[in-house]
TrEMBL record:
GO CC list: nucleus
Disulfide bond is among the record's keywords: no
SMART domains, sorted: ZnF_C2H2 (SM00355)
A molecular function (GO) term: DNA-binding transcription factor activity, RNA polymerase II-specific
Classification via Gene3D superfamilies: Classic Zinc Finger (3.30.160.60)
Protein name: C2H2-type domain-containing protein
PROSITE patterns the record matches: ZINC_FINGER_C2H2_1 (PS00028), ZINC_FINGER_C2H2_2 (PS50157)
Species name: Larinioides sclopetarius
Subcellular location: Nucleus
Record family assignment: Belongs to the snail C2H2-type zinc-finger protein family.
Residue ranges occupied by any C2H2-type domain in the UniProt entry: 35-62, 63-90, 91-118, 119-146, 147-170, 205-232, 233-260, 261-288, 289-314
Keywords: DNA-binding, Metal-binding, Nucleus, Repeat, Transcription, Transcription regulation, Zinc, Zinc-finger
Keyword DNA repair part of the UniProt annotation: no
InterPro entries: Snail/Krueppel_Znf, Znf_C2H2_sf, Znf_C2H2_type
Amino acid sequence: MDRNLPSKMLDYSDLCSQAFSQQQHLLTHRKEKPFVCDVCNKAFFRKGLLKTHLLTHTHEKPYVCDTCNKAFYDKPSLKKHLQTHTGEKPFECDVCNKAFFRKSDLKIHLRTHTNEKPFVCAMCKKAFSAKSHLKRHFLIHTKEKPFSCDICNKAFSLRSTLRKHLLTHTDGALSEKAFSEKSNLRTQSPTHSRHLSARSKEKTFVCDICNKAFSQRPHLAAHMRTHTKEKPFTCDICDKAFSEKTNLRRHLLIHTKEKMYTCDICNKAFSLQANLRRHLLSHTKEKLHICDICNKAFSLPSNLKRHLLTHTKK
């Protein structure tokens, strides 16, 4: 199949017995994410999602609440926030009558009555009632510290720990507004946002060895390790070392048994996106790898390689 997908009607019945007029919908089946962030390399299905994500780098929040002036990156977040002013809580607990803004919050709350904790950490077996709690806990194992203090640059795994730390710089009292400002979460002006966006596209950091240029110093530092062969990120479980933190994070999925990439056709799950892509070929019957000797076609290069041995043995 041509990888340059046409914009008109596409018959992709091998996937789910329906035709697709939208290129984007087909990408969701193939788990392809062609829109990549220049700043952090995160990939997305749709251009709109990338556009919204870029605002997290520029700190631009274009959706503002008319009541309290709180700003948000996207429209759904603003819509959700507006319920806090209307007091509307349509989702009520049958056990204790506590009401919630969101259905997902009610679902998590119900587990406090059932003591159900379906999300278990594969590394230390600690269980959690919500996936977000497990995710937050997992930062302890990955040693990732995404929350930095703007005053002394100390980094923390949890936002709540950063908040506690900020009190050491203040007189002990820290309002919500002060926390937002000190933790660099405030809304930037549109002019400043545009400036940051333009800056993020400039490639001012150049590799001395191969002259490849990067928009951010950390990206250059990561690239330099391809030359030095340095691998500073080590797995605590099996001691395997990696040159990039993202590769270590991906590797940890092997130990946690977490499989976040699911086939929409047969529901088989995979820990890596590449494995899902390879698996999807079994549904599409697409065979791109052809034997030069007998023209037999294969969906995977490994299968072709194995097949070629049958010719060499003759």
